[in-house]
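Re: [help] complex structure
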Amino acid sequence: MAELCSLREAVSQLIHDGDTVAMEGFTHLIPHAAGHEVIRQGKRDLSLVRMTPDLVYDQLIGSGAAKSLRFSWGGNPGVGSLHRLRDAVEKGWPHKLDIREHSHADMANAYVAGASGLPFAVLRGYTGSDLPKHNDHIRFIQCPYTGETLATTPAVRPDVTVIHAQQADRQGNVLLWGILGVQKEAALAAKRLIVTVEEIVDKLEAAPNACILPKWVISAVCHVPGGAFPSYAQGYNERDNRFYLAWDAISRDREAFTAWIQRHVRDTADFAEFRRVYAESSQLAEAA
Amino acid sequence: MAELCSLREAVSQLIHDGDTVAMEGFTHLIPHAAGHEVIRQGKRDLSLVRMTPDLVYDQLIGSGAAKSLRFSWGGNPGVGSLHRLRDAVEKGWPHKLDIREHSHADMANAYVAGASGLPFAVLRGYTGSDLPKHNDHIRFIQCPYTGETLATTPAVRPDVTVIHAQQADRQGNVLLWGILGVQKEAALAAKRLIVTVEEIVDKLEAAPNACILPKWVISAVCHVPGGAFPSYAQGYNERDNRFYLAWDAISRDREAFTAWIQRHVRDTADFAEFRRVYAESSQLAEAA
Amino acid sequence: MSSYTTNEMMSVAAARRLPDGAVCFVGIGLPSTAANLARLTHAPEAVLIYESGPIGAKPTVLPLSIGDGELAETADTVVPTSEIFRYWLQGGRIDVGFLGAAQIDRHANLNTTVIGPYDAPKTRLPGAGGAPEIAGSAKEVLIVMRQGKRAFVNQLDFVTSVGHMDGGDARARAGLPGKGPVAVITDLCIMEPDPVSRELTVVSIHPGVTREQIVEATGWPIRFAAQVGETVPPTTTELDALRALEERTAQAHGKTKGGE
Amino acid sequence: MSSYTTNEMMSVAAARRLPDGAVCFVGIGLPSTAANLARLTHAPEAVLIYESGPIGAKPTVLPLSIGDGELAETADTVVPTSEIFRYWLQGGRIDVGFLGAAQIDRHANLNTTVIGPYDAPKTRLPGAGGAPEIAGSAKEVLIVMRQGKRAFVNQLDFVTSVGHMDGGDARARAGLPGKGPVAVITDLCIMEPDPVSRELTVVSIHPGVTREQIVEATGWPIRFAAQVGETVPPTTTELDALRALEERTAQAHGKTKGGE
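Output below.
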């Protein structure tokens, strides 16, 4: 049953060292605030899962929180590489990162299987691709009716899923809209679910068939306005494209990255303070 | 690409003798008008598919249009048996009906598989049930990761799916809301798709993430207000519970049924005339 | 003379078994009556899910069909039927599956398919619907049905949905995720599976009903628990809520009640 | 002196290959530029689908990411990403998959995973994303990428997504539903697979480009068709539409263009 609490409490009580954690968001509604709180609390050995690891996963990986990564596309959307992810994969810094690489179609199906209580998913995929040669979790079966060969993938069943959404009501029911990505599936596939939201409202004014997560599938709801920054929340704020560009320079260099994380994340009390510190430092950078 | 045309044209051109046809609707939005038009045009040897065959399938079966039925629950909802379905199964009248019986979970998954371009679906189902003993399409496989045994079912891929919806715009894009059943999956699993609608509007005022079928997946859109009668279309009309009760008496007797179909369906030009004739006959019945 | 009917006792006794806050997958008919009565009395936070798609339905009148507009209009949200079976039932989100049936055996296995041989049926019933997977995947199952020799049979003509299979730990050995039936509530009594053999055992008898009536209405030699209680009769609150619900329903739908 | 850049020629030539009314699964970056240019010129009825969920997106500026709000706001509807891959791509609803890549070989197989050995990469690329299944399931595939020896290679370091595999009827034998790549559009020329061998063959050279430049920019001995045409230069309409689109995009996003 959803408890309304601070993000600090939620991360502290619900995410444990060694957990399998999915923080989902397909460009839209990425739970950056929660990612920062995980770094701030020094969580370790996380098995991270995400279709599109981007800046927040780059930060988690560079900060040494991750043991492994299951993913299907790792880049800085619209900009280029994730330098911390690359450094971990290419040079093992800050330590070795086990990667298990899939395709988007595979990962989307794996979340669906997880939400559906199935141990695996079936898809028409990977024919001729080298990916199965480097990932023995990708397997193939025969259709029991036609004999066709189809690919399989293990279900994603995170210990904890974290998502950001637009609204919760005071009971903890959550509403999201716009680009939904695989958030509903990731939410329902997880043992524990943390949702950060833009706004707490008296009553969700939801359309029929809207995407609602009822309070009884949620472990904690945390009110974190702007908690997707520099991603966006449709109807609330816009994507800060400059942050994505700036990240390229910050993340290229180990020392610059480490100093940035120290100043902006480890030395700040929460995401609101991060936003203030970041606003100051980016104004200075622009003035320079 | 969706063509706006009469239901007569749509059924004539898109449904052929011997086709596999799914007319879906989970109590809500049942395409009764289309079912009548199939009877009126004397289509034969149809392989019918539907989770919940109800009155309209009882009428099709009693009229001799059906060769087989794949289903998971066949009853008159809120009333009792489907007498024409029972007569076909128990006594072979008007001719033998091959039935292939599944569970709801199986059928829902089978439509999902059909819409997903897969030849089969996997589900956690049927353990200990006698259904697989009488339906060799229900099979079992082992999970390639855990070794667990799971049930499989062949995908539903209808030649034609028919659904009823609330609105279409003038281009033929369709919007439905409320209880959606498996209509979207049935629509996308089919080679050809007929949609009857309550209303044609200039522009669909759809919520974000609403259930929309774009015009390019639809073969024909037909404007048939009240075309779900005696079922209902949320926002437009209510379920006529009296019809369901009355049907019990009409359908119990072969002669009464045949006379009713002749007078109300075969001898009427279209669904609007059926509604007029039915209104008259039911007033007479109440007066009597 | 009792001031309530045996059907009322059955609905009230069944309703009492639904814990407040439980997520309940509701079959139409008697289970729907009991689940909604629970929601209107001791279990206001019970979450009712119907297979047509409504999650958190709060109908003010009993639905006549599993897809009444009332269910959609009062729900927290309405999802596709495919999602109900995949993410919510099979996904392990259902605390209680509330079922009825045409036939039940001593291990609470259920038949809703056919009376007589499958290929030459004496009576063709509606079929499985959602029951086989509700019976398999819900964390526990409640069954409500009227008791009589044609319904409580020594041998099912057809096993549509499993209860405790052939008893003992058969269910666990078959790898079924849910606990299976935890109670059968009838118009005569309440039965629960024996903790070891999983054979249905009478644990509570409704007021005014005799053991002989129960024996007579059961197609196998029915067992009684060492301690058999008497079911608490419907309270005024329960009875008022049930009658008001049925009266609202009758007014809304005409003469008929919510059926199969 | 030409009045347009080679990149503009590439985007215009790629856009022209998208038929009006086609349902197009759009990769971000160059494919998105080409697909939207097509929509704004000769193909107003083209249906653009992005893997993040928008169906029928009609952005007025190019998206910087695959999930920009602009895509959702201008779409006919937005469905979950899981549905995009299941019902729309795998379901066989996509006419044209529009892809880019880091590396391509003579049979139009694509690498977006890694340069160098997989376990000791020289350069780690973003990975597969939607490409393997777009390449497999779209009815046909268009590829747009800048031509150069590091991109057009004799041997891929990694096959992320299949084109025509090792040529001939390999694709059909592998049971892939789609036709595979039907054209590769670069900043120098247009290639199509040979009807029999499925080896990429230059069929049209952009104005001002020499055969030597193309040979020099290709990591295998590139073949030219018996009849090689000259690509029609961008028309004023095409160029105006492209430049206006990129100007609107630059204003909306700052200096950056839509990237990977």
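The radius of gyration of chain C is 17 Å.
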